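Thanks for the sequence, V.! I ran Cryptochrome DASH right away. Repeating your input here for the record:
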Amino acid sequence: MIDLSKLNSRLSTDYKTPTTWNFHIERCANYRTRFVIESVMALEKELQKRKSNLLILFGKPERLLKELSEFLKKNDCEIHQIHTHKEVSRTLMKRNTRKSHFMKKYAYEELVVEKELTKIWNKTIAFHHDTTMIHPDDVDFTFEQTPKVYAHFRRRIEKMNQPVRPLLQIPDELPAFPDIIWKFPQSEQGKDLLEELYEAFAFEKDERSAFPWPGGEDAARKRLENYLFKTDGAINYKQTRNGMIGTEYSTKFSAYLSHGCLSPRLIWHELNRLQSQKKIDKTGGDEDGIYWIRFELLWRDFFRFLVAGSGNRVFHLHGFRDMSNKEAQEDLKKKNSYSNKVWKSNNDQFNKWKVGQTGMPYIDASMRELINTGFLNNRGRQNVASYIAKDLELDWRIGAEWFESLLKDHDVYSNYGNWQYGKYKKDLFHCLLH
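Predicted structure:
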């Protein structure tokens, strides 16, 4: 947005591409769909406040981009530059796109728009690393050199003098939105469809939900302000983060982080401000909740760096481990008994697990909370994940896909990273600001 504010006019677009899953699970169920729609609507309002706007399109991006390009050319509207997020997995996934249909779908989602932008417009594309707290250009290792153990990764980051870049100032006003775009045939259709979907995915909120808030930047900033400065939530975070009931036992930043409503860099700098106000020692400690919020933010970055360095292995049965040669396979067999395990395929067990009918009260209560609210506390995630993988002995990826379908706060790095990173260990999940 900062770069775009320097241009004479700006066109913001947002594409949402529905897909299916390897285990045939609906990818984005009602809670996350509604949250995404709320976030897009909130973005539109924020842009309008700054004298700009947002074009919302539904359909296959490669087709829509081509049609939009042809329309703009006919109306003498020149595109100077294209700005987009740089998802850290996209370039690494080019290497293995032919291995399976499952991998093709992920590679397709990550790469097609990028290719078509270059092909259709033949313009310079500016990529921005906006989803990580630590900018990849600021560390002393490449993605491929990312430490495979979180503690090693964290120590490398903590040694940096200024690990997180300063925040950029948001312009009060952006260049006018080009009027010609509203004559594009799909423009009004997109907005109307978004409003229809907003109503179609309406649901009665469960008053017991630990995450009752809507999507959008305004709601995200209010949550941040309340948790950090209007309560002692951040100060007490380490002691309360594994709670299960209520809204205040943890930050609840995760959904806002996942959908770009809240920047991890903003959280970092707001924590600095809180430390200054409370005069808290920055070295951290067992009683320093602020330190542990940063600790979880680094976990979030850790998975992004790992995926960037290992490509689509995050979706493989053995996860981040490189199992491409016999030596690696034999080495894993020696180190861990789970490497030889034949994972079961039992639809009846999975169906009972996903709706909370296993007969295990705690597991069932957790899964019902997930179904009825689109959210589940960290300890609940650990236990239901452990149950399906360690007790039912089902392929952990079917559980990961069910989480992706239902969780409001799903992001592919944290979800798949958490499920497979701890598959051979006692615990399966880390907080990641749930």
